[in-house]
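Q: Given only this backbone (88 positions), what sequence would you predict?
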């Protein structure tokens, strides 16, 4: 526990936004993947919906990669970040 800041037992806005962005980005690809699964569900969905699902699928996958890579980059390359994550 960091004695200077005290133990707040709360997550900050950055932690919450990373968590919720990761959760949403994990849920969207399987949901949109069902819609874009051509041979099995092509008759059940109209073409504009399939195109929208393809965009949602791609954007959520890229977002998830970014959400995972930025904290890793920060922990390794920004001075003090790794120590703050370990000590707090």
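A: Predicted residues:
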């Amino acid at each position: 526990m960091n004695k200077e800041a005290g133990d707040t037992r709360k997550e900050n806005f950055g932690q919450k936004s990373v968590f919720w962005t990761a959760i949403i980005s994990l849920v969207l690809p399987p949901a949109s993947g069902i819609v874009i699964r051509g041979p099995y569900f092509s008759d059940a969905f109209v073409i504009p919906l399939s195109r929208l699902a393809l965009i949602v699928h791609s954007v959520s996958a890229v977002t998830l990669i970014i959400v995972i890579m930025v904290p890793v980059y920060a922990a390794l390359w920004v001075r003090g970040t790794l120590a703050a994550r370990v000590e707090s």
